[in-house]
Amino acid sequence: MGLQGSNGSKKRFSRYVEGLASVIGHADRVGPLRDYCTGLMLPCGCKSVKPMAPVTAAQHQSLLHFVGQASWSDEKVLAKVCETVLPAIDRQGPIEAWIIDDTGFPKKGKHSVGVTRQYCGQLGKQDNCQAAVSLSIANRQASLPVRYRLYLPQEWAGDAARRRNAHVPEEIVFQTKPEIALEQLRWACEAGLPGGVVLLDAGYGNHTGLRTQIGALELTYVAGILSSTTVWAPGTKPLPPKRWSGQGRPPTRPRRSATHKPVSVKLLALGLPRRAWRTVSWREGTAEQLTSRFARVRVRPAHRNELHGEEWLLIEWPEGEKEPTKYWLSTLARDIAFKRLVDLAKLRWRIERDYQELKQELGLGHFEGRGWRGFHHHATLCIAAYGFLISEREAIPPSGPRVAAGLSQPALPANYRPRGAADPNRASHS
């Protein structure tokens, strides 16, 4: 892959790099910026500094310093990438979703920043790895990560020696993955990004606090949840507070009883009548049409006996399966069309494709350094290169290849499962 196309493509790449250079600081960083992004798009096996330097005719030490030590801002570069690429995405259709997710990078040893034993979606199990949380904007045709941050486990956040060796900034404290995600969503609201429905897998969607805060930001969501999540069935809600005895403070908390209580979404789904289920089709990408069985009902989330508003509970139960396989809660409008609700829930597939291309085509997981700055600089440059390739897809004629500059769109492997859905016994984010 790479810039092996027309002179027009190469000129657009030069203009793209010039735009990024406007926020990257010193003029002597422009060359390494161009070389590093070029190296990420060239067909060399490993996208780390050592193999990229000779194929881009760049100096090894120059690239190494640029990605590992130079003090340019990842946030400013990502914002510039978004500003530059968003018009190209928007011309293919309005932004429909903000997708929160994280991705893991298997790592040996214990010295690379943030490495610990945790769930790694790439491996589908607990193992030694790094994990990063991201926010992407998406429509039906394209998506782009606009925020990206390493998850720093507690054992790292509280270890002064490890922090010092990995050059973790002082202002970085321990945050759970949902807390990082919420911070990214707040940034997107403040930055005025085109609005979209927030899409979450069960690792994030099962956190009532995160869903509540998303609502407080006046955003709607479609959030994956676990089958054990409890809700108040249609037409039911918590009992009113106990009658006041006249002493102490009047009771205000809604309540439940042994005979009046919420049910798990799985139990509710299994009890739905046959007429509740509909076969719905949706589209992934530009060609593949997929079909499954779904039901939806209006429920109230059950959390701490608080009285929550009604939401949609969407359930997927494919033909041939013994029980439902996926569940979502959504604050989308009561009158939303059934097919539209399913379509938005399934739009989360875009982030899986993002990570697949960023890893397989652009070497997102190939950084070999151990420090905080290098980890984020490498990821930012991968996203910058990815952004250019997204914008180049517009330049491909209908009879030409589907993706510009050699970026392929491989089919997902047959045994591939989205992070968070790979293991039904996987625990939610701590």
**Total E-strand runs:** 12
User: What is the element string, with H for helices and E for strands?
Assistant: HHHHHEEEEHHHEHHEEEHEEEEHHH
First-last Cα distance:
39 Å
Helix content: 25-40%
Largest sheet: 12 strands, mixed
Low-pLDDT regions? 397-430
Average pLDDT over all residues: 86
Counting H and I runs of at least 4 residues, what is the number of helices? 14
Instruction: Bin the strand percentage.
Output: 15-25%
What does this structure look like?
The two termini are 39 Å apart. Strands 1, 2, 3, 4, 5, 6, 7, 8, 9, 10, 11 and 12 form a twelve-stranded mixed beta sheet that branches. Mean pLDDT is 86; it is low at 397-430. The protein folds into two domains: 7-201 and 350-406, no CATH class; 205-233 and 260-347, Alpha-Beta Complex (Transposase Inhibitor Protein From Tn5, Chain A, domain 1), CATH 3.90.350. Helix content is 34%, strand content 19%. With 430 residues, it is α+β, with helices and mostly antiparallel strands. The longest helix has 21 residues, at 372-392. It is built from 14 helices and twelve strands.
Short key terms for the protein model shown above:
430 residues; alpha+beta; Transposase Inhibitor Protein From Tn5, Chain A, domain 1; twelve-stranded mixed sheet; disordered C terminus
Topology summary:
Elements: H1 7-21, H2 30-41, H3 49-56, H4 60-68, H5 74-90, E1 97-106, E2 116-120, E3 125-138, E4 143-150, H6 154-157, H7 160-166, H8 177-191, E5 197-200, H9 202-205, H10 208-216, E6 221-225, E7 230-232, E8 263-264, H11 265-270, E9 278-284, E10 288-301, E11 311-316, E12 326-330, H12 338-346, H13 349-360, H14 372-392
Parallel strand pairs: 1-5, 5-6
Antiparallel strand pairs: 1-3, 2-3, 3-4, 6-12, 7-8, 7-10, 9-10, 10-11, 11-12
Helix pairs in contact: 2-3, 2-4, 2-14, 5-14
